[in-house]
Amino acid sequence: MARIPKFPVVIRDQGVSINIYRIKAKSTRTGYTHKVQWVGADGADHRTFTEFSEARDFAQSKAAQLAAGVASGLQMTKADWIELTEIRELAAQVGVSPLAAMQEWRRGFDLVGPAIIDACVAHSQRQTSTIERIKVSEAIDRFIDAKDEVGKEGTRVYGAKLKPVRAQLGDFYLDMVSVRDWSRFLLRFDDPVTRNDIRKRIVTLCRWARGHGYLADQIRTEIEKTERAKERAKPIGIITPDQYRALLHFFREKHPHYLAALVIAGFCGVRSEELHGKRGDPSRRQLWSNIYLDRETPLLSVTAAKENTPSNRLVDIPPAAVAWLSQCPTLR
Is residue 261 within 8 Å of residue 276, measured between CB atoms? Predict the structure, then answer.
């Protein structure tokens, strides 16, 4: 039987040391796992094996690999170190690694050859010369005014949702707000529904800005590159007959002027916007003149149908609803 080595086992190669640890694990055949641990250019790392022989072979190979890198590093001149340090500092200024910077440069070289800078200058001039630079706050004002002018209730629909955008990023130039800036802003909102709702309004703002020459004419705006939050499904509540009966009695006693809306919503299924109208246009609401209780079959004609639904919709009024509507103040 092979002798069990004393752990941790240390594998050495030209000054590089790698440790192999033995850890109890009930799920394995032997009852143990073997963790190989080392320190490389990217910091501490490890890998786990079931068999010690596999761990030892890997550790020897990794030690040889690291030793080769150390030997290569020892041969660097002072000028090499200075150059490498400057490369790292330049890459850090834009938040990328030296390897990522070289990979991007290589991709640019493959696309346009040695004239990478000339191509970038031409692209920049083409993008900036065609847009009008404005700050986020001014873009919001122009956007809301444009919506109000065509009757799309810009102030009501977008005013409150874009208020935190104005407060946080209002002094930024719109074309300078990056996907990282938008992402950091959206992370302020813990509730995923709120975050997605505000993101949707910003997407509409930026698409409008792109169409009006305030952003470059590209396929996707920076805000559209951000991730939508995952929303948690919420249970849909259903009012029981007893609960609805209690509501009817409560409104008849405490708020009789709102009783008709509750009756029509509950018994006839008329939408809230059709009953009360939108906050921006309360005149578009259900009128008593379009409710016909004296017919053989009582019905109502929806006065102002919700958008994208059939207009002049007729709704039957059941007997129970007729009885409750007859108790409303306007009909007594």
Answer: yes
- Cβ-proximal residues to 249 (8 Å cutoff; 6+ apart), any chain: none
* CA-closest candidate to residue 62, choices 43, 49, 47, 72: 47
Q: Which of 25, 33, 44 has its CA nearest to residue 7?
A: 33
User: Could you tell me which residues are beta bridge partners of residue 38?
Assistant: 45
Q: How many CB atoms lie within 10 A of CB 177?
A: 21
Same domain, residue pair 121 and 143: no
Number of Cβ atoms within 10 Å of the Cβ of 111:
9
- Check: CB of residue 158 under 8 Å from CB of residue 201: yes
User: 233 and 209 in contact (C-beta within 8 Å)?
Assistant: no
- Can you give the residue range of the structural domain that contains 197? 136-225
C-beta of residue 271 within 8 angstroms of C-beta of residue 295: no
The answer to whether residue 36 is domain-embedded is yes
Q: Which two three-digit tokens encode residue 120?
A: 């970038």
Residue ranges of the chain whose pLDDT lies below 70: 1-2, 41-42, 69-76, 78, 122-129, 218-219, 278-283, 305-311, 331-332
Strand partners, 9: 20
| Full-model pTM | 0.47
Q: How far apart are CA 243 and CA 1, in angstroms?
A: 79
User: In a 3-state reduction of DSSP, which class is residue 21?
Assistant: strand
Peptide bond into 310 cis (omega under 30): no
Total tally of structural domains belonging to the chain: 4
The letter for the amino acid at 328 is C
| 234 assigned to some structural domain | no
At residue 331, the pLDDT reads 62
* Residues in CB range of 223: below 8 A, 6 or more apart: 177, 179, 182, 199, 202, 203, 206
How far is Cα 23 from Cα 205, in angstroms, rounded to an integer? Answer: 57
